[in-house]
Amino acid sequence: MWEVLSRQIPYEEVTNPMQIMFSVLRGKRPDTSRDSLSVDIPSRETLISIMTCGWTANPDERPSFLKCLIELEPMVRRFDEIEFVEAVLEIKKSKLRQRSGCCSAQPPACEKGNEAGSLDNLKESSTPWPLVSIHQPTKPVKQKYL
C-alpha cells in the first residue's frame, strides 16, 4: 500500500534483503510523512491509519479484512463510478504494456482509438490522484432474474 501511495519502492537503498528483514523486526517502517505521502492523496489519513495498523508486529492486533472494508467503503463511494473503472482499466493497460516490454508511453496503435477522453485527463493531470467527484450514492438497481 505504501508503494502505491508514495509511488516509490520501499527500502530502495537497501542492497541486502536481510537488512530489510532486520529493520522490520526492529520496527522500522516506510516513512508516512508528507514528504513521502503527498497531502493531495484522497482520504490520506484513513489510508495511512489502515496501513500502519497492518504493520503491527502482533497479527492479532492488525485490522481484519472486514474492518478495512468498512473504513474504505465511504472513501470509494466518493469517486465517480465510471472514472474509477476507467482508471483501473488504465492501470491494467499500463501493466500489460510493461510486461510486453513496450517502453513507449504511447499506447499501441490498436488501443489508440479505444481510449476515453477522461483517461487522457488523468495523464495530463497535475496530480497523480484522480479528482474526487462527491456525489450521493445511487440507489441499488433491482436485478430481474429469468
**Structural classification:** mainly alpha
Mean pLDDT: 77
Total helix count? 7
> How many independent structural domains?
2
The count of strands amounts to 0
Percent of residues in helices:
40-55%
Spans of 5+ residues with little confidence (pLDDT < 50)?
Answer: 108-118
Keywords: Kinase, Receptor, Transferase
Protein name: Receptor-interacting serine/threonine-protein kinase 2
GO molecular function: kinase activity
Organism: Xenotaenia resolanae
What does this structure look like?
Keywords: Kinase, Receptor, Transferase. This is Receptor-interacting serine/threonine-protein kinase 2. GO terms for molecular function: kinase activity. Helix content is about 45%, strand content about 0%. It is mainly α. The chain folds into 2 domains: about 80 residues, no CATH class; about 45 residues, no CATH class. The longest helix is centred in the middle third of the chain and has 19 residues. It is globular.
Highlighted features:
146 residues; mainly alpha; 2 domains; 47% helix; 0% strand
Write the layout of secondary structure elements.
Elements: H1 2-6, H2 17-25, H3 44-54, H4 65-77, H5 81-99, H6 109-112, H7 117-124
Q: What would a concise description of this structure say?
A:
GO terms for molecular function: kinase activity. InterPro entries: Kinase-like_dom_sf. The chain is 47% helix and 0% strand.
